Amino acid sequence: MALIPGVSRSGGTITAGLLMGYTREAAARYSFLLAIPAVLASGFYQLYRSWGADSAPPAGPTALATLVAFGVGYAVIVWFLRLVSTRGYMPFVVYRLALGASVLALLAVGILAPL
Fold it and tell me: What's the rounded mean pLDDT across residues 12-38?
């Protein structure tokens, strides 16, 4: 459950970092560093829940998927930090505003229904 619906953990921490006077890149790095405990805790919790269960996934494919996810995640973080340091956050602001307007329009014409 979100404190403010539509605001992600990283979006909230980046905004807080910017409000505290961090540079764009430092705020993004701060956000990614804050993600480490949350991601590790959720992963270990899922591992604990599946430990000894009959339906536990096999270790080999799980380890491979973890390595691939780490590699892709690392590449995206490098790309994102480069983008933020050169272009700023405006592309994401425009994206969020356009997405919000689209959802409101789809709700207004009845294509989407609230849950």
Answer: 91
